[in-house]
């Protein structure tokens, strides 16, 4: 048995620990970023090595056997030792594997939260999220940034783009005592034009003009006040102090709903179509260097795409 134990990979030990703690092989596959058959093969190898079923299927999930319960603290000692080795003894190697991900500002915090919820998202190192700014495409091409999630299409032959989808149905955001709520949800865009409007500048989307400004121009309507900002805190402050309203993508609503004094509600579908009649909604792209220059495993980009697609809706690639 000793030879068989020595033949176990560190991955097998992580699988054992994760299945023991969750009791769900499919969940473990998602957390580790591998397929369900891969987890099944790993469990088969573990069972053969320790000559025990280890995990028995019950209504509540996979239940650990007595042998598995005895092995669990020993396996934890091994995985903890590997974690300590990475965090202390291999600091230089770890630093070389850390990645920088530039993300469109409205998706920065929501995506960070989703990555945080998946401890095995990138086990090779840490992921630093930074805001996608003008010049980020050039930094990515130079290798200073590893991947990007952007709403602009960098015109560079040394970068590859993958279309992910358009921003999901936006919500209307304003102070909870704002007068616009008296007419909601029957309120249409023409009536909204009576109130102060603020928007958060997003490079590649509304850095020149916002869709609502364009709508008002086409209707010959002059907004009482329009405030464009580059800072999220300033944008939120305008919603409260200027008694202004704004439109926000779905991924920002949980954060905004936790701010006292604000209210958010999905914009009716008919008004969404009117809002984006002249300027289409933000189109999100995965931006990468060409394959030969990538410092991360292929599966990482696939896992990142799945997370981003929780916040966007698929549609035909724009012209």
Automatic annotation (TrEMBL):
SUPFAM superfamilies: Periplasmic binding protein-like II, Winged helix' DNA-binding domain. Pfam families: HTH_1 (PF00126), LysR_substrate (PF03466). Gene3D superfamilies: 3.40.190.290, Winged helix-like DNA-binding domain superfamily/Winged helix DNA-binding domain (1.10.10.10). GO terms for molecular function: DNA binding; DNA-binding transcription factor activity. InterPro entries: LysR-type_TF, LysR_HTH_N, LysR_subst-bd, WH-like_DNA-bd_sf, WH_DNA-bd_sf. Residues 15-65 form the HTH lysR-type domain. Keywords: DNA-binding, Transcription, Transcription regulation. Belongs to the LysR transcriptional regulatory family. This is Transcriptional regulator, LysR family.
